Amino acid sequence: MAQVTVTLDADLAIDAMMLSGTTSPQDAVELILLDYLARRRRTETRTGDAADGQRANQQRPTAQEG
Question: pTM for the whole thing?
Fold first, then answer.
């Protein structure tokens, strides 16, 4: 897997470490990103994606009066 170097503010890195319960800023950011991506996939599975929204917004035929 390719590696990327990201520069973070020290306070942000510490907050990420506290939230994830790790002692390494790199591990903290990795865990938070993995959780974010997994949560997004679960949400899309439950609610659908943008293409599903178009299907729900299609106009339905109106009842004919007469």
Answer: 0.56
Q: What would the two tokens of residue 40 be?
A: 């997004």
What's the CA gap between 55 and 16, in Å, rounded? 39
DSSP letters, 13-47, are HHHHHHHHT-S-HHHHHHHHHHHHHHHHHHHHHHH
Distance (Å, rounded) from C-alpha 57 to C-alpha 50? 11
Tokens 């991506």: give the residue: 37
Cα 18 from Cα 14, distance rounded (Å): 6
Confidence of residue 23 (pLDDT cuts 50, 70, 90): very high
**Six-digit token string for 34:** 């993995």
Closest C-alpha among 40, 42, 41, 16 to residue 30: 16
